[in-house]
Amino acid sequence: MQPTNFPSPMNDEQAQRTSPVPFTPTTDIEPARVNTHVTFDPGKIYPPEPAAYSVPAEIEPEKPKTKRLARLGRLSKKAVYLLLVGVVVVTFFTKNNYRGITAISQAAIQAPQQTATTAVPFTYNFQGVSYAVTPLFNYQLYGMVVSRHDYISDDSSLADNQLFPTDLCMIWGQNLTSGVYRESSTTFTQFDRFCNWQWQGDTQVINEDASNNHLMFTSGAVKRQLQGIGSGDQIKITGQLVDVETITPNVPPKKFVSRHSSTTRTDSGDGACEDILVSSIVVLQKNSNLAKTLYRFCLPTLGLLIVLNVVFWWLKANRSKKP
Question: How far apart are CA 89 and CA 99, in angstroms?
Answer without folding.
Answer: 20
